[in-house]
Amino acid sequence: MKSSAVALLLSLPMAGVTAFAADNSFYEKAAQGGTAEVMAGKLAANKGTSAEVRDFGAMMVKDHGAANEKLANIAKAKGVALPTAAGKEHLDEMKSLQAQDGARFDSAYLAGQVKAHEETVELLKTEIASGQDAEAKAFAQEIMPTVQSHLRKLYQLTGQNDKAASLPN
User: Fold this and answer.
1) Would residue 4 count as lying in a domain?
2) What predicted TM-score, i.e. pTM, was given to this entire model?
3) Domain limits at 147?
């Protein structure tokens, strides 16, 4: 009995470390993704062929820029160091996107944005459901409607109206 209690007590700090690591992973992924959204949004605002793509890109710069700032303030208050650049995968996608022109650019940008926003919704859902950091969870809950709104617009722009209708308003 005594050894079971000792084992339980020793495992509690590891559970906290695991939860902390998961929340730190959320901070890292959210920061890298947000940085990538702003970079791609700037590119789309300048290089997009259609007004819808240019407007959507400008909205990404504004909305994700504001979310990035909120996340940075939360992380700073907690002493969590955020990455200052997009991850390698994001940078590779940017390089590929920069090589596109005209309608191909618009199509590639929108497809990439659909994928990125679907992944972000899943990241936020996971943090909301199982995150241990109250501020990270609150941040995820706060920005979820905006990310879902972006995804709804993306589905509309790519002709996936059935998927757009399935998202909450």
Assistant:
1) no
2) 0.85
3) 19-160
